[in-house]
Amino acid sequence: QFLDCLKMLFEQVLGLMWGAVAVNKYCISEGILLDDKAAANEATNPANGQGNEASQLTKSATAAALSAAADLAEKSVSELLRLRREAHSLVSFDGMRQLWDTSLTFTLQLERFSGKKAYGLRSTLLAQAKSFVERKHESNMSSLVAALDSERWVQCNVSAERQAALTRLCSGRAAFSSRVTARGTETAAAANVPPSPAAKMADADVEGVRYKVVWSCLLLLEMVMDDVACAAHFQTLATNIVGKVCELLRLFNTRSTHLVLGAGAIHSAARLKSINAKHLAIVTQCIALMLAILPHIRAALMAQLPAKQHALLTDLDKIKTDYAEHSEKVLNKLVSIIGGIVEHSLAPKISKTSFDERGTTMPMPESPDAALECCAFLDSVLTNTTKMHQVLKVMLPDELLRDVFSRIFAYLDHKIPSLYKAAAISAEKNFAMPVTDNGKIRLIKEVQYVTGALNCLPGVLPWKFTAMKVLEQELDIVVIQPEPEDTPQEEDVADEKKETDDGAPTPSVDAGPIDNKEGQEENIEGDGNLPAEDEKSSGKEEVPEEHTSTIPEEQVESPLEEHIAPSDTQDEETSREQNDVSATPPNGEDEAPAVEEETETVEASEEPPVSKETEPSESESQEENINTDPASTTDEVSPEQISPEEKEAL
Asked: Helices in 45-118 by DSSP H: which ranges?
């Protein structure tokens, strides 16, 4: 009602001012004098230059009248607003915005009439807006504390209006609020439409990522977005509003840390019986939502600040670090819940277990995939971890779920062997490490079964447990573990090698080229190995004086007679080999080309050769001296076996 009365007052004052301006323009255009002193001076001194002075005096007199009227209107409105200061600090943001817009429009019109700034009215408006921001911030702080204290940390639905506000913030339109329009037309239209159940969402959506939130988190987001809208509308107060936003974010972080991690919710207005994994998971989701929103809040505030004041936004960067540390503490708390259960509730069950007895009375299943009955301690560890997984899988996204259970698996991998060791050396002597092989195998197999079951939980990252290896070292026994997933590749490689050895040609060591100038030659021995290092480094290979063969002469001659080629083919091969021999410079090693050719032939063949011809000679005596042993790769020929005809050819 006051705002409507103020608008009527502004209309009346501005109407009078417009009339005064019109009268002033008419008097100036007609040369009418409104000052009595100027008229008297013109009557007594009718000189030529007196008219111009009177005209100037008339203009200044009318302008002074307009300026005085504007000053009077400014002082009156300022005093009226000053009297309403306390009432204006309690209005809503929409009411304050309408008051600011209406008063600022009136101020600009007065400044046009008077030709000078209305500093008094502007300072009054600024003080009114600052008082409103301070009062609103105090109300927000107290409301947020009350909401957090009564928070039961359960998920709540997100209305379509709040989801639309989140979408505007993420798209850079945080300053525009669809809740308020002129005369409240949109609000009235929305009031006539009944809310549909489909208008509410179970999760908050930020850039395609869904978060489960609580009521206090939604309230914080609404307060922050209202402050951003205030900074956009009252830009002169943007620096103050940045500090208010930082205080709200810090309050939510510290208070939620105290209530959940510090178990303050048990003694608060919520009166929770305990803090469980579900409460920790929902806190993690709220913190993740705030971390996703903080960059958009920073960008929206930066757009309202001058460049020199952007350093004020460093507080938001520190707050982001605080939220990340809070999230890390919550994730570690989830691990500590499992740790507390294992160390305090389940560890005493170790003393009631005798693995030597279990290894004797309880046979191991034949199938490796069959279920194994574990001891009470390991079975309870598996049961509690599985229950934790069932709770967190519903509350946490996949990425956080993998992170949490990787930490839990790392803890269990270290803690299970250490608890067995500690129980074995404790003063009570209620538990002893197994002594028999069956007991040792039983302990390791049960630990192996539990770790395998943990890795089979859906949505977790498989962990490479080392608890079995630690227990094997402690018990001084080696138990055959299942092959890892990458071992089939090694088995395939081994099978390929085996197939190559059986049927395919085996890769052999190629004899290097013969350097006839230096008189060097590489020799491949009968077993396929390279010669010794000192033999390869020698400049010239010594030809043995006498050729010895372990194969009887009858065995050598009989395969040779069976594999002799026809005469025409033999003559062609003999002539070709003689040309190769004649092309070789005489360096004392006559048999080198034949040995090299024979080696290459053996490497290219898929089956071991039965016999080979190494010397191009027509005499049968030389053919009988060729070594046809299939096991040997090369033949050595002594100087006594060279015929006189070959010597003449060389």
From this structure: 50-83, 85-89, 93-114
| 107 Cβ contact partners less than 8 Å away, ≥ 6 residues apart | 74, 118, 121, 122, 125
Residue given tokens 């030597």 in the structure block: 356
What is the rounded distance in angstroms from the CA atom of residue 344 to the CA atom of residue 528? 66
Question: Across all residues in the chain, what is the average pLDDT?
Answer: 74
Quick check: 216 and 148 in contact, CB under 8 A?
yes
The two tokens of residue 125 are 């408006």
The C-alpha R_g of the chain, in whole angstroms, comes to: 50
Instruction: Give the least confident one: 129-133, 321-325, 501-505, 509-513.
Output: 509-513
pLDDT at 365: 82
User: Which range is least confidently modeled, 67-81, 94-108, 219-233, 586-600?
Assistant: 586-600
The residue ranking higher by pLDDT, 332 or 193, is 332
Residue type, 605: S
Percent of the chain scored above 90 by pLDDT? 40
Residue corresponding to tokens 């000679």: 617
Q: Residue 200 in contact with residue 157, Cβ under 8 Å?
A: yes
Gap between the Cα atoms of 109 and 559, Å rounded? 125
Distance, CA of 501 to CA of 496 (rounded, Å): 9
pLDDT for residue 273 is more than 70 = yes
Interval 7-52: pLDDT, tens: 888 888 888 888 877 877 777 777 766 654 554 555 555 444 444 4
Rounded CA-CA distance 136/120 in Å is 24
Calpha distance 489→495 (Å, rounded): 10
Q: Give the distance between the most distant pair of CA atoms in the chain.
A: 167
DSSP letter for each residue of 471-505: HHHHHT---PPPPPTTHHHHHHHHHHHHHHHHTSP
Kindly report each contact of residues 107-116 with a partner whose C-beta sits within 8 Å and lies 24 or more positions away, as own/partner: 107/74, 109/14, 109/17, 110/17, 110/70, 110/73, 110/74, 111/70, 113/17, 113/20, 113/21, 113/66, 113/67, 113/69, 113/70, 114/66, 114/67, 114/70, 114/71, 115/63, 115/67, 116/67
pLDDT digits (tens, 9 = 90+) for 511-546: 333 343 344 333 333 343 333 344 443 443 444 444
Residue 280: the pLDDT is: 94
Residues in the chain: 650
